[in-house]
Amino acid sequence: GHFHDIQSCDFSPDSALFATACYDTRVIIWDPYTGDMLLELGHLYPPPRPIFAGGANDHYVRSVSFSKDGLHVCSVADDGYLRVWDLEDSCDPQYIAEHQNALCCSFSPQDHRISVGNRTGGVVFYAMPRCVPALQQLCRVTIRKQVISTKVDHLHLPVRLKEFLKYHDL
């Protein structure tokens, strides 16, 4: 799915999703059990053609991290921005902060802080608004901690609920 080297990766807390950050200016969200690409988060608009994405560009995505609720992803890129994506509304980043020379990012275990490490040896912390995950998401995370994607289809549930459990609603 990527056109260049993968720089960073992270599992969601329920291990149902896997995010990869790449030099091709994109973060891709995958189902780690089936290999299906579920969502593509672009750091460059319009998205680059493969020839540009596979070469040198100033939008390399350096790091990606999942939040504890599994519905938010933060990423940093060489374009000088920290982006926080809400996976349920992934058209555009939910939050953007300017941060030059960023190398890595990570959500705190309590989800209300993001740390960003940079090339100058410093770490900057960003505050995130507290939000309570929907009961639907809490149930999905609980079930997915026990049942992998390939086993969801064997559950005696309506198709729409199976698709929800497999994150095909993103």
TrEMBL record:
Residues 132-170 form the SOCS box domain. This is SOCS box domain-containing protein. SUPFAM superfamilies: SOCS box-like, WD40 repeat-like. One of its GO terms (biological process) is protein polyubiquitination. It comes from the Eukaryota. It comes from Magallana gigas (Pacific oyster). Keywords: Repeat, Ubl conjugation pathway, WD repeat. InterPro entries: SOCS_box (IPR001496), SOCS_box-like_dom_sf (IPR036036), WD40/YVTN_repeat-like_dom_sf (IPR015943), WD40_repeat_CS (IPR019775), WD40_repeat_dom_sf (IPR036322), WD40_rpt (IPR001680), WSB_SOCS-box_domain (IPR051983). WD repeats lie at residues 1-40, 54-88. Pfam families: SOCS_box, WD40.
